[in-house]
Specification:
The chain is mainly beta and 157 residues long. The longest helix is centred in the N-terminal third of the chain and has 8 residues. It is globular. The termini are far apart.
């Protein structure tokens, strides 16, 4: 069995899981620069599930779009984190008009699979999720659409 490559995604919707810390960098790279309304996050405490409905930039399609001179794309995707015991936020406004830009996902292992999963947003916002075990899934749920900006996200670096 071989690891997935960006090229393998082609035009197919992504469906990925991360169950170990080594799985997280690929998933984090694919959701980098995703945007969402603050209202598009939910924590279902009884089910121990935190979910975000994202507008994900299609990083896996960037080279194809550049070489084919076609527009860059985004896609609506569902990011679900399982086994969430507690949620803490910093600098996140939960009003319906707030738009968040996800920059990174990191994991601090506390042993035996438990730890803190941190979602870092532009503007110094963050969400810390205490998890019993690492369990994330990312699934594209719509067809890709032309990115409204027409550009690749840029952090000025």
């Amino acid at each position: 069995m071989t690891d997935a490559r960006y090229e393998d995604g082609d035009e197919q919707p992504l469906r990925l899981i991360a169950r170990a810390a080594d799985d997280l960098p690929v998933l984090a790279a694919l959701v980098q620069d995703a945007v969402l309304a603050a209202a598009d996050m939910t924590y279902a405490r009884p089910r121990r599930r935190f979910a975000l409905f994202l507008n994900r930039f299609r990083w896996e399609d960037r080279e194809a779009a550049t070489s084919a001179r076609r527009p860059y794309e985004r896609v609506r995707a569902l990011l679900v984190i399982e086994e969430v015991l507690a949620v803490k936020t910093q600098g996140i406004q939960r009003d319906g008009d707030t738009v968040l830009s996800l920059l990174d996902i990191s994991f601090a292992d506390k042993g035996e699979g438990a730890g803190t999963l941190t979602l870092t947003f532009a503007g110094d916002g963050a969400i810390a999720l205490e998890v019993e075990a690492l369990g994330l899934s990312l699934r594209d749920v719509t067809r890709p659409y032309v990115a409204p900006s027409g550009k690749v996200p840029d952090h000025g670096m």
